[in-house]
Specification:
Length: 111
């Protein structure tokens, strides 16, 4: 039940996060001043926390979609299997989010 609720919450969070990405793209297309402002917001401590949350929401929602796709085949519908898949989804979302951020920082040469 918790993972089902999280799936819905992350769907809503993705809507909000996509608006932020659209703002960043519009700022990039508008002017250097607007782009610098957007980068300052996203580069701040709070902005990075929002981006980290957005990344987690994106990964968690994607994994939930994959879990539902598996269920659509008729597999994994037993209570113990479904519960195990739900726990795995939460752990995998955290691990994959951290790996995405580590790869992003490595690509920027921050390590």
């Amino acid at each position: 039940m918790t993972v089902s609720i999280l799936h819905r919450v992350t769907g809503g969070a993705l809507y909000f996060g996509t608006l932020l990405i659209a703002w960043w793209l519009l700022a990039a297309a508008t002017s250097e001043r607007q782009f610098d402002l957007a980068n300052a917001v996203f580069g701040s401590w709070a902005g990075r926390c929002v981006l980290l949350g957005y990344t987690w929401a994106l990964v968690h929602h994607m994994l939930g979609g994959i879990r539902h796709l598996i269920w659509d085949t008729g597999s994994g519908l037993e209570k113990t299997t479904a519960s195990s898949m739900a726990r795995l989804q939460i752990v995998a979302a955290i691990v994959l989010t951290l790996l995405v951020w580590i790869a992003g920082y490595a690509a920027r040469g921050a390590f």
